[in-house]
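Dear V.,

Thank you for sending over the compound details. I've combined the ligand you provided, flavin-adenine dinucleotide, with the protein sequence from our construct and run the structure prediction for the complex. I'm sharing the raw inputs here so there's no ambiguity about protonation or stereochemistry in the SMILES, which I know was a concern on your side last time.
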Amino acid sequence: MGPRTALDTLASRLTGEVRQDRATRLAAAHDGSHLRGAPVAVVRPADTDDVVRLVRWAREFRIPLVPRGAGTSLDGESVPPSGAVAVDLSPWNRILAIEPEELRARVQPGVVNFALQTAARPHGLFFPPNPGSWTRSTIGGNLATNASGPRSFRYGSTRAWVRRAEAVLGTGERLTLGTLAAKRSLGPELLVLLAGSEGTLGIVTEVTVRLAPIPAVRQGLAVPVPTGTRLGALAVRLRRTAGTGLSAIEFLDAGCAAALAAGRRAVGPAGTPLLLLEIEADDRASAEARRAAVGAVLRDGGVDAPPTVFDDADELWTLRGESGVVLDERYGERIREDVAVPLGQLDTMLRAVATIATEEDVPVFLFAHLGEGSLHPNYVVDPSSPTATRVRHRLWQTALDLGGTISAEHGVGRLKREYVPRELDGAAVAWLHDVKRRCDPDGILNPGTLYPSPTPARGSSPSRRGSGAARSPSGRASAGSDRASHGRRRAARQRR
Ligand SMILES: Cc1cc2nc3c(=O)[nH]c(=O)nc-3n(C[C@H](O)[C@H](O)[C@H](O)COP(=O)(O)OP(=O)(O)OC[C@H]3O[C@@H](n4cnc5c(N)ncnc54)[C@H](O)[C@@H]3O)c2cc1C
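Below is the predicted structure of the protein with flavin-adenine dinucleotide bound, written out as structure tokens.
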């Protein structure tokens, strides 16, 4: 028998599916960003033993693996570099158990967020992280990006709602992290390493999440806001006021609200920016009292138009989740940013968002998780153009200068990784690389995402180990998608 290609070897080792047809590869080559990858195959492992076999194979042949849920990430997190194998976990979509007494659910990683919500609802429970993509994104993807949504204002991000997870590390080790106990004081909790790890440490094969009781009343409000309102100051006042029962403080600028009205349905009166709020309460009377408390704060901040009321708050959040999609439909490719600053700096950041748009001469649409100081400016400009690079860097640097972050909830992916050292201490970056090396010594898991390129120590020879060491089946070093690596070179030039 002649020499067998690495991929032929794979097909004979797994019980799951190995697809190499063009249509399947193309479908796994992109996420929600403008980046495009070039996977050589898409693998659908049959079970966790299959994942272990897959990882061992990848180590043997030094082939990158990129775990994939729904592929809705926005910075290239799930874009396979050229020569990689995409590991499609979307068929792993079984809810294994809902345990109402324990307020938890055990799920496979490919379960769609909304499917979990639907299954938990008859038990009077819900899973609080509700990203705008909740009708599509998976629990595995939510964990690996530490996703959040409107209600994270009250409940926090995915990290806070995961009890236990099973994963196969890049070493091929299979392990369970976390505990079923409600609390534990046993060393640093290693489970949190998986939150935001972007598929670079291990492939998550099972997740036990916490659930919360659904409040008796959940009222959504869309409140028109006069242009020029100091939104940051208003958010601070809303957050500081006791007894409001607020679980979400969101914002849509007038352009986003208009796009939503034209593309889906109006959430409030036309031609005005909107605050989107959710009030939780035990009964109608207390909801009214809470609305009155919120109304008083809003009036103090110069906002006194009557709200549009949504008795089903989830209807409001599903519409809000479509904001990005309707901008896609109307304006096409653009920068979809994701910075956050401390609330006290929000008005300064909002001014900077507008100034960048004016000075760079690009339209901007803004939606925001206002109560968390988390902003999604959408600049309508070719995302691979020099202007786009300049806009991103100005935005990220402003967020950092104000004590904020370059990634509030979407992740780092391929687009932001070279900026990570501007946010983290040098020692913290080195620590990140150490964790990566421990979990994935051959750098086979999602190379080219999250970690900045290591700065080689003076006099040292290039290491065989660590991120970026994996090779494509043809034997070429894997450098990520051409456009992504081009972007990195450009970013490096800009810093110089
Ligand atoms: C319209 C729209 C709205 C959005 N709104 C929000 C929002 O409100 N809040 C928010 O936080 N994000 C939002 N996002 C971004 C995105 O939906 C989230 O990051 C989501 O968590 C990604 O889930 P996914 O299943 O699509 O993961 P993918 O895109 O498939 O993967 C994302 C990352 O997770 C890794 N991964 C996936 N599954 C596994 C696994 N089983 N094991 C290990 N690693 C894995 C991948 O390798 C990749 O690095 C939005 C995106 C869109 C398109």
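A first observation: The mean pLDDT is 91.

Warm regards,
I. M.
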